[in-house]
Amino acid sequence: MNLPRRHFFHLAAGALAAPAIARHALADAYPSRPVRLLSGFAPAGGNDIIARLMGRWLTERLGQTFVIENRPGAGTNIAAEVVINSPPDGYTLFVTNLSNAINAALYEKLNFDFMRDMLPVAGIAQAPAVFAINSSVPAKTVTEFIAHAKANPGRINMGSAGVGSTGHLAGELIKMMAGVNLIHVPYRGNAPALTDLIAGHIEVLFPSLGSSIEYVKAGKLRALAVTGATRSDAVPDLPTVAETIPGYQAASFYGIGAPRNTPAEVVEVLNKAVNAGLADPKLNARLTDLGSVPLQGQPATFGKLIADETEKWGKVVKAANIKPE
């Protein structure tokens, strides 16, 4: 069939425009039902707090409920695997965090490759931990704690949210750089570890600033320092560990991940919504109050952060010979 030249170009233009129209239609339709946002830790920890803050914002912004689902265990691997094996449609998402970067070196055999199988969607925040001790420990500074630990080798219990958690690695880095011997006591989440720290069942913990700041302000635990590169606006009087141990830095990160092959249009909707939340004065202020620094940016920027942290903490895991439970 011979087509008039003008009619041919009209059809060709329509064919080229069709994929773009389909992409816009997909973006406009998402989300059309509730979205699951899985956290690999128990409720009340820093990961859970950040997830609920962002989940509430996304619910309001996108008009569908973002349901926070806690799936603790295996250093977040259980939750990560659930998400990775879910349909790549944007309705099952993951709260990505530093533990995922650590796990790449910690676990020799996993059913997935996090860097390959989890698509970075958006960064949310970066946050230091707190070098926190029970008030019975005779130390008010990092220097005094190190001296106390060296005088009591193998007799000070260091809790964590679990083997390979951010707090565990922050403590291992202290042990390596300060030359102290602390006994690691892993818990199933940050909240039970905090409870035992306050009760005096353990002496030291490196909880997220967001989960522990109220206890610090209430005097229920003693904070010696923050683990980030700079002092936190939330607790400006607290020094950094690096002011005593030059070069020390341990900051967690939080973000959103999705199964590989999730449509780019869905990722774009989520990324824009998260970035809008981080620019919102109220949400931004809430994150800052929790000691977090918002991480606005594109998926590729968040992906680079994950890759860099994976390389850094892989070296610590190997040097400390850390093995999974």
The radius of gyration computed from the alpha-carbon positions, rounded to a whole number of angstroms, is 22 Å
CATH class of the largest domain: Alpha Beta
In the CATH hierarchy, what is the architecture of the largest domain at level 2?
Answer: 3-Layer(aba) Sandwich
> Going across the major beta sheet, what is the strand order?
2-1-3-10-4-11
Domain count, please report it: 2
Structure in words:
By secondary structure, the chain is an alpha/beta fold. The protein has 2 domains: 169 residues, D-Maltodextrin-Binding Protein, domain 2 (3-Layer(aba) Sandwich), CATH 3.40.190; 114 residues, 3-Layer(aba) Sandwich (D-Maltodextrin-Binding Protein, domain 2). It contains 12 helices and 11 strands. The chain has a 6-stranded mixed β-sheet, with helices on both faces. It has a 3-stranded antiparallel β-sheet with strand order 8-5-9, sandwiched between helices. The protein has a two-stranded parallel ribbon with strand order 6-7. Helix 4 crosses helix 12. The radius of gyration is 22 Å and the shape is globular. The termini are far apart.
Quick description:
About 45% of the residues lie in helices and about 20% in strands. By secondary structure, the chain is of the alpha/beta class.
Write the layout of secondary structure elements.
Blueprint: H1 5-29, E1 35-39, H2 46-62, E2 66-70, H3 77-84, E3 92-97, H4 98-106, H5 114-117, E4 118-128, E5 130-133, H6 142-151, E6 157-160, H7 166-178, E7 183-186, H8 190-199, E8 204-205, H9 209-217, E9 222-226, E10 251-259, H10 264-279, H11 281-289, E11 293-294, H12 299-319
Parallel strand pairs: 1-2, 1-3, 6-7
Antiparallel strand pairs: 3-10, 4-10, 4-11, 5-8, 5-9
Helix pairs in contact: 1-10, 2-10, 4-12
